[in-house]
Amino acid sequence: MSSEQIVLVIGASRGLGLGLLDELAATPNTQVIGTVRAPTAALDHLGSSVKILTLDISDEESITEAASTIPELDTLIINAGMGKRDPVTTSTTDVLSTYLDVNVLGPHRAIRAFLPALRARKTRRIVVISSSSASLGQQALPGSKGLAGSYGVSKAALNMLAMQCHKELKDEGFTVVPVHPGWVATDMGNTHGPGGMPPATSAKAILKLVDGLTPKESGTF
Ligand SMILES: NC(=O)c1ccc[n+]([C@@H]2O[C@H](COP(=O)([O-])OP(=O)(O)OC[C@H]3O[C@@H](n4cnc5c(N)ncnc54)[C@H](OP(=O)(O)O)[C@@H]3O)[C@@H](O)[C@H]2O)c1
Fold first, then answer.
1. 145 CA from centroid of ligand 1 (Å)
2. Rounded CA gap, 168 and 166, in Å?
3. What atom of ligand 1 comes closest to residue 55's alpha carbon?
4. Which structural domain range is residue 144 located in?
5. How many domains in the chain?
6. Which residues touch 94 (CB under 8 Å, ≥6 apart)?
7. What digits encode the pLDDT tens for the residues 158-192?
8. How far is the CA of 59 from the centre of ligand 1 (A)?
9. Residue 177 maps to which CATH number?
10. Ligand 1 in contact with 172 (CB < 6 A)?
11. If you take atom 5 of ligand 1, which residue's CA is the nearest one?
12. Measured from the CB, is residue 57 less than 6 Å from ligand 1?
C-alpha cells in the first residue's frame, strides 16, 4: 500500500484471516490490527508490530469495546465467518439463525461500530469476505462445488448487506466490496477435502485487489 494505512482484519485467529495478518505484517507503511475471539499461540510469531484485539462478531458489546480503542481506520476487512455442511431442508431454523447471526448480523454490527473510525480517514474501504456460494448462478450449476445450504443463504444476504452499505455510503467516498477468496485450504475449506490453495496465496491476491480498489469498484463482487 502506498501511504501509511491502518488495516483491521476481523476474525484473524487462523485460516485466511491469519494469512491476511501475515501478509499485512510484511507490508511497508501499514499499521495492522487483528481481532480474535481468544488469543492463541498461533499468533505469537507476529510479534508486537501487530495489535491484537478480542472480539466476537456475534457479541455487540465486544465489538463496541474493540471499536472504542480504534479512533482511525483506512480499511476494514471482515473475514470472520462460519461454514459447514448444513442443508436447509434438514437444518432447524435455529441453525440457519446462527449462520445469519455470525455471517450477516455480525458484519452489520462491525460495519456500524467501525464507521466513525473509517470516516476519520479518507480511504474508507470496507471489504467483506464472501463466497461464490452466495451466487444463484453458481448454485444452479449441476454438481456445483463449495459449501451450500445455510451457509449459501447467509453469504447471499451478506452480499446484499454490502450492496446496501455501498448505496448508503458511496456519496461519502466509501468503497464497499464483497470478495470471494477462492478455495482455500483452511479448516473450513478442507471440509471439501484436499486441494484448496494455501491461505497465503489467497491473502496475497485479496490484498492486491484491496490495494487497487477505488470508489468506482464499490458495490461490485
Ligand atoms: N476456505 C474457503 O475455501 C473459503 C471459500 C469461500 C469463502 N470463505 C470465507 O472466508 C472467510 C474465512 O474462512 P476460513 O476458510 O479461514 O475459515 P476458518 O478456518 O473456519 O476460520 C474462520 C475464522 O472466523 C472466525 N470466527 C468464527 N466465528 C466467529 C465469531 N463469532 N466472532 C469472531 N470470529 C469468528 C474464527 O475464529 P475462531 O478461531 O475463534 O473460531 C476464524 O478466525 C469466511 O468468511 C469464509 O466464509 C472461505
1. 18
2. 6
3. 33
4. 5-217
5. 1
6. none
7. 999 999 999 999 999 999 999 999 999 999 999 98
8. 16
9. 3.40.50.720
10. no
11. 183
12. yes
